[in-house]
Write a structure and sequence with these properties.
About 65% of the residues lie in helices and about 10% in strands. By secondary structure, the chain is α/β, with parallel strands linked by helices. It starts with a helix and ends with a helix.
Length: about 650
């Protein structure tokens, strides 16, 4: 490696470590650190890096790997679950942004080709930054998180056709029909080649590689992603498109997850070079000189993109809060716009001056993203006036309230908020136990589907008091909140307590740390998934080792006491199996310990458990063998697990005698 390039890389990596470390202390995404590093050490900053062109060349590898991994991570099956958001919401967001930006740019006296291309640039948002922030905030599964994810996926897909259309926008061909025909033919050939490779060639090739059990060879086998890149580049398309196609081919194989894990560290390294190289392109003197115009453009982008993303979300019939939160999450200009801008410069669709404006606006919006998302909840609350909430609530609840009053008997009922896996299981349990219940769900498609099945389900956001009133919350006995939005959960608990102080609130959350604030707001029980999952796992382990249920429950109580206080009713149900048909008839399991001297070694008739303790011995588990027909002459031996029945008081009396 050339000595000067080696020195440049040392400076680049050294500064990026320092800047990213500082930003991580403030819980800001590392991508912002890479951008700032580029601005600081670039030719327009401290000029610490001399080989800017070499760094840009290295960064192109990052672009190829980025698209390669995105291609591997995209799955048609996974897209199917959020297809409406991806294809309807994404199309509306990209389409309206391109149209609005093109018209504005055209009014400035530019050609339609340039205008549409600039629309392409401004329509894309940052997948890397947005998803990183939403994951850290535990909001990726929330309604606005799912909407943002769906629209970002559409943007990631549409960037490829944008690259294909760019030469036509640049007027490379005088015959538009011929150009479009050539584009279609190339696209068809690419699709056919992708299908054949994914179906027949790559799976067989990777299978032969995997059989060698060589990790090094498996890593090297991923590098042929360069081959499709070279083919697409030779065909007049882009290197990035070829990398995306290569990733898509591998994604259809059985080895895509291992391939992703293998290539991911290299992608992280080279994409960091990409973002640093973008920061190095920013001309600080240009930025300072034109700061008022740039900041005005940033404000315009924030308002325009937020509004359009909100419109796209509203078209999917989501309530105002979800609409605005999704809009604020997608206001920035993303990393793929930088990739696309290089293509535009190549085809002279972007002048150096316009490119500097674009870079300045893009980097500023990316730097602002964490702060906008952080305060989006408060901004949304200010934007959605009480009058708007009331109007929206009336529109969504009047008809539903009448329908609920007619169809469902809503008194002493259960309200289930959120119809995911947890909500579905709670509803099944309520139906089995013949408990009247009603479901609140935000996904219009789920509501329509479940209504056809006759389920008592209402479309609405429980964050609004009008929706809670529509399901007669003041008459409900229990509310189960089973959604994945921590902020919305807090607001819902507060609203419930404003309506009813007596209703019993059970909240499902993800982390133990969320118990205290939710309980302070009024939740009666908070059940964290991460902890309950671990309890469920070790309970099954202990059960399979034939540990008595009472010992398992005691151990669980100890673990819960150490790690969090699970707020339960003081009158706990007995740790026994209860029959709903025979009141007070319970079954449990007890182990005979070494100090059970009055019982061990004696027969059942000698102990006379029925007379002395008021219980019956149903079965005995001894050394892994179940004795189901227990005779009065059966001896009781140390470490026997005996299954007994009786009322709670007699069971506890017997338990004290043997333990």
């Amino acid at each position: 490696m050339h000595e000067s390039l080696f020195q440049d890389l040392l400076v680049l990596l050294g500064f990026s470590v320092i800047v990213v470390f500082i930003l991580q202390r403030f819980k800001l995404p590392s991508i912002l650190g890479f951008l700032l590093t580029g601005v600081i050490i670039g030719p327009y900053g401290l000029s610490l890096v001399k080989g800017v062109h070499q760094v840009e060349t290295i960064s192109e590898i990052g672009v190829i790997l980025l698209l390669f991994v995105i291609g591997m991570e995209l799955s048609i099956k996974q897209l199917a679950s959020i297809r409406k958001t991806v294809f309807i919401g994404g199309f509306i967001q990209v389409g309206l942004t391109v149209a609005a930006t093109s018209i504005i740019y055209k009014l400035l006296g530019r050609s339609w080709g340039e205008s549409v291309f600039v629309g392409f640039l401004f329509s894309l948002s940052s997948t890397a930054i947005v998803l990183k922030i939403l994951q850290e905030r535990n909001e990726i599964s929330a309604p606005h998180g799912r909407n943002a994810l769906g629209i970002l996926i559409f943007q990631d897909i549409i960037v490829v056709p944008m690259m294909l259309v760019t030469p036509i926008l640049a007027g490379q061909s005088t015959n538009l029909v011929v150009s479009i025909s050539e584009l279609l033919i190339k696209s068809v050939l690419v699709v056919i080649g992708t299908y054949i490779s994914a179906k027949y060639i790559v799976p067989r090739f990777l299978y032969l590689i995997v059989k060698t059990n060589s990790k090094e060879l498996f890593l090297l086998a991923q590098l042929p992603c360069v081959l499709p890149s070279h083919i697409t580049s030779s065909a007049g398309l882009s290197l990035a498109l070829g990398a995306f196609i290569a990733g898509l081919i591998i994604s259809e194989s059985d080895y895509s997850h291992q391939a992703t894990g293998t290539i991911l560290p290299f992608r992280e390294l080279f994409t960091s070079f990409f973002f640093i190289s973008v920061g190095m392109l920013l001309d600080l003197s240009f930025f300072i000189k034109n700061a008022p115009i740039i900041l005005f453009l940033v404000l315009g982008v924030l308002i325009l993109k937020t509004a359009i993303a909100a419109i796209a979300t509203a078209s999917l019939k989501y309530p105002p809060r979800t609409v605005f939160l999704t809009g604020f999450a997608l206001f920035q200009i993303g990393e793929f716009s930088f990739i696309l801008s290089k293509v535009g410069i190549e085809y002279k669709l972007l002048s150096p001056e316009v490119n500097q404006y674009f870079l300045s606006v893009s980097i500023i919006t990316m730097l602002l993203t964490p702060f906008v998302i952080m305060y989006s909840e408060k901004i949304t609350a200010l934007m959605i006036s009480s009058r708007m909430q009331k109007k929206w609530g009336i529109l969504n609840t009047q008809a539903q309230k009448k329908e609920q009053d007619k169809k469902y008997e809503l008194d002493d009922h259960l309200v289930i908020i959120g119809y995911g896996i947890n909500g579905t299981n709670v509803a099944k349990a309520a139906q089995y136990a013949k408990i009247p219940y009603v479901i609140l769900e935000l996904d219009a498609e789920i509501v329509a589907h479940e209504k056809k099945k006759g389920k008592p389900i209402v479309y609405g956001d429980a964050i609004h008091a009008h929706i809670l009133e529509a399901v007669h919350l003041n008459k409900a006995r229990v509310v189960v909140i089973a959604i994945s939005d921590p902020q919305a959960t807090k607001a819902i608990i507060a609203n419930i307590r404003d309506i009813s102080q007596s209703v019993y609130i059970i909240v499902r959350t993800r982390y133990v740390k969320e118990i205290a604030p939710l309980t302070a707001l009024g939740a009666d029980e908070v059940i964290p998934e991460e902890f309950e999952t671990s309890i469920e796992i070790f309970s099954h382990v202990l059960h399979n080792y034939l540990i008595p249920m009472d010992e398992i429950e005691n151990f669980i109580d100890t673990i819960r006491a150490d790690d969090y206080k699970l707020f339960r009713s003081p009158n706990k149900l007995p740790r026994t199996i209860s029959s709903t048909r025979i009141p007070d008839f319970k079954i449990t399991c007890v182990r005979l310990m070494a100090d059970s001297g009055d019982i061990i070694g004696k027969t059942i008739s000698e102990v006379d458990v029925r007379k002395n303790f008021g219980i019956n011995i149903l079965a005995i588990l001894r050394k892994g063998k179940m004795i189901e027909s227990v005779s009065p002459d059966e001896k009781l031996i140390q470490n026997d697990l005996i299954f007994i029945s009786g009322d709670q008081e007699n069971i506890e009396q017997f338990y004290r005698a043997v333990v």
